[in-house]
Write a structure and sequence with these properties.
The protein is mainly alpha-helical. Helix content is 86%, strand content 0%. The longest helix is centred in the N-terminal third of the chain and has 29 residues, at 2-30.
Length: 123
Protein backbone atom coordinates (compact mmCIF):
# COMPACT_ATOMS: atom_id res chain seq x y z
CA UNK A 1 0.00 0.00 0.00
CA UNK A 2 2.73 2.48 0.95
CA UNK A 3 4.69 1.59 -2.19
CA UNK A 4 1.62 2.29 -4.35
CA UNK A 5 1.03 5.63 -2.61
CA UNK A 6 4.63 6.64 -3.27
CA UNK A 7 4.38 5.59 -6.91
CA UNK A 8 1.19 7.61 -7.38
CA UNK A 9 2.77 10.55 -5.55
CA UNK A 10 5.86 10.54 -7.78
CA UNK A 11 3.71 10.38 -10.90
CA UNK A 12 1.42 13.14 -9.64
CA UNK A 13 4.41 15.33 -8.81
CA UNK A 14 5.81 14.97 -12.32
CA UNK A 15 2.40 15.41 -14.00
CA UNK A 16 1.64 18.51 -11.93
CA UNK A 17 5.01 20.04 -12.78
CA UNK A 18 4.45 19.47 -16.48
CA UNK A 19 0.94 20.95 -16.29
CA UNK A 20 2.37 24.08 -14.62
CA UNK A 21 5.15 24.42 -17.23
CA UNK A 22 2.65 24.11 -20.07
CA UNK A 23 0.43 26.76 -18.47
CA UNK A 24 3.41 29.14 -18.23
CA UNK A 25 4.36 28.55 -21.86
CA UNK A 26 0.79 28.94 -23.09
CA UNK A 27 0.33 32.25 -21.25
CA UNK A 28 3.35 33.60 -23.12
CA UNK A 29 1.87 32.58 -26.49
CA UNK A 30 -1.87 33.01 -26.00
CA UNK A 31 -2.35 35.61 -23.31
CA UNK A 32 -4.84 35.28 -20.47
CA UNK A 33 -8.26 35.84 -22.03
CA UNK A 34 -9.25 32.18 -22.50
CA UNK A 35 -8.03 29.11 -20.53
CA UNK A 36 -6.14 27.64 -23.50
CA UNK A 37 -3.58 25.95 -21.27
CA UNK A 38 -6.23 24.09 -19.29
CA UNK A 39 -8.03 23.05 -22.47
CA UNK A 40 -4.78 21.83 -24.04
CA UNK A 41 -3.71 19.95 -20.93
CA UNK A 42 -7.13 18.32 -20.54
CA UNK A 43 -7.15 17.16 -24.15
CA UNK A 44 -3.54 15.99 -24.03
CA UNK A 45 -4.22 14.16 -20.78
CA UNK A 46 -7.25 12.41 -22.26
CA UNK A 47 -5.27 11.24 -25.26
CA UNK A 48 -2.31 10.19 -23.11
CA UNK A 49 -4.33 8.21 -20.55
CA UNK A 50 -6.16 6.43 -23.39
CA UNK A 51 -2.86 5.60 -25.06
CA UNK A 52 -1.25 4.36 -21.86
CA UNK A 53 -4.28 2.42 -20.64
CA UNK A 54 -4.74 0.92 -24.11
CA UNK A 55 -1.12 -0.21 -24.30
CA UNK A 56 -1.18 -1.73 -20.83
CA UNK A 57 -4.52 -3.43 -21.56
CA UNK A 58 -3.12 -4.85 -24.78
CA UNK A 59 -0.22 -6.47 -22.93
CA UNK A 60 -2.21 -7.46 -19.80
CA UNK A 61 -0.26 -5.05 -17.60
CA UNK A 62 -3.16 -2.91 -16.34
CA UNK A 63 -2.39 -3.89 -12.75
CA UNK A 64 1.33 -3.17 -13.04
CA UNK A 65 3.14 -0.53 -11.02
CA UNK A 66 4.12 1.26 -14.24
CA UNK A 67 0.47 1.55 -15.22
CA UNK A 68 -0.31 2.95 -11.76
CA UNK A 69 2.56 5.44 -12.03
CA UNK A 70 1.59 6.64 -15.50
CA UNK A 71 -2.24 6.65 -15.31
CA UNK A 72 -3.31 7.38 -11.73
CA UNK A 73 -0.07 9.17 -10.90
CA UNK A 74 1.22 11.08 -13.91
CA UNK A 75 -2.03 11.59 -15.84
CA UNK A 76 -3.97 12.20 -12.63
CA UNK A 77 -1.46 14.86 -11.60
CA UNK A 78 -1.33 16.27 -15.10
CA UNK A 79 -5.12 16.56 -15.30
CA UNK A 80 -7.89 14.88 -13.36
CA UNK A 81 -10.08 15.39 -16.40
CA UNK A 82 -8.23 12.53 -18.09
CA UNK A 83 -9.17 10.22 -15.22
CA UNK A 84 -12.77 11.41 -15.47
CA UNK A 85 -12.83 10.71 -19.22
CA UNK A 86 -11.19 7.30 -18.78
CA UNK A 87 -13.66 6.26 -16.08
CA UNK A 88 -16.53 7.38 -18.30
CA UNK A 89 -15.15 5.28 -21.13
CA UNK A 90 -14.87 2.28 -18.80
CA UNK A 91 -18.56 2.65 -17.89
CA UNK A 92 -19.48 2.78 -21.57
CA UNK A 93 -17.19 -0.11 -22.47
CA UNK A 94 -18.78 -2.30 -19.80
CA UNK A 95 -22.23 -1.54 -21.25
CA UNK A 96 -23.31 0.70 -18.38
CA UNK A 97 -24.76 3.47 -20.56
CA UNK A 98 -27.01 4.90 -17.83
CA UNK A 99 -24.12 4.88 -15.37
CA UNK A 100 -22.08 6.80 -17.93
CA UNK A 101 -24.87 9.35 -18.51
CA UNK A 102 -25.35 9.79 -14.77
CA UNK A 103 -21.61 10.06 -14.04
CA UNK A 104 -20.91 12.61 -16.78
CA UNK A 105 -24.06 14.67 -16.22
CA UNK A 106 -23.76 14.86 -12.45
CA UNK A 107 -20.01 15.49 -12.57
CA UNK A 108 -20.29 18.39 -15.00
CA UNK A 109 -23.55 20.01 -13.92
CA UNK A 110 -23.17 19.51 -10.17
CA UNK A 111 -19.46 20.26 -10.36
CA UNK A 112 -20.04 23.67 -11.95
CA UNK A 113 -22.94 24.34 -9.58
CA UNK A 114 -20.79 23.53 -6.54
CA UNK A 115 -18.00 25.81 -7.75
CA UNK A 116 -20.58 28.61 -8.13
CA UNK A 117 -22.09 27.87 -4.71
CA UNK A 118 -18.75 27.84 -2.96
CA UNK A 119 -17.74 31.05 -4.72
CA UNK A 120 -20.96 32.77 -3.66
CA UNK A 121 -20.63 31.50 -0.07
CA UNK A 122 -17.22 33.05 0.45
CA UNK A 123 -17.79 36.16 -1.62
Amino acid sequence: MLRNLLIVGIGSFLGGMLRYLISLLMKNFCGQGFPWATLLVNLMGCFLIGLIFGLFSRFNGVNSLWCLLLTTGFCGGFTTFSSFANEGLQLLSSGNVWGFVFYVSVSVILGVALVALAYLLVR
